[in-house]
Amino acid sequence: MMCDLFIECMENILSTNKQHSKCDCGDCLKNSDTRSTVKVEENNKKYIIKNSLTKKLTVLKVDGGMIEDASRQKCDYLVIQLEDKISIFVELKGSDVKHAFEQLTETINSMHNNLKDHSVYARVVCSTKQNVPNYNACPQYVRLIKLLKKYNGDLEIKSRELTDDISSFYKYSN
Prior knowledge:
Layout: H1 6-16, E1 29-33, E2 37-42, E3 45-50, E4 57-61, E5 77-81, E6 86-93, H2 97-110, E7 119-126, H3 132-135, H4 139-150, E8 155-159, E9 161-165
Parallel strand pairs: 3-9, 6-7, 7-8
Antiparallel strand pairs: 1-4, 2-3, 4-5, 5-6
């Protein structure tokens, strides 16, 4: 189950930089500030956002944080720019990229009520990247791409390290 206090927690983070006082999701809030570089990493895989616009970026641990249910598929992290409603779902994966697509799709779908008016993006950082044309025939990839288009977002896949600049997300946002 996803955190029941997500909306309240995000409002609290926006105003105080702290999780909701009644949050029982554990340690899901990693940071929420305007640092110049935001980084999440696991097992030699890194996702980095350069914060060239000095926006307040909130990093949440999804797997084992917001969603603790071991039976549910979920991605690793969510990076949100709350004021401008930009959500970036991140999966740091070994080599099973198709499973990463399923995890991202499941996480985004489970949060759809909380993502109204958000631009939603997905990022996969894996150990090895297969050729992208192979993904076009993959139903998990096609499903994720359709979902992201619904939210005016996109998907990026890189091996070992992926770096975005926050400004690149503003060409799509409202």
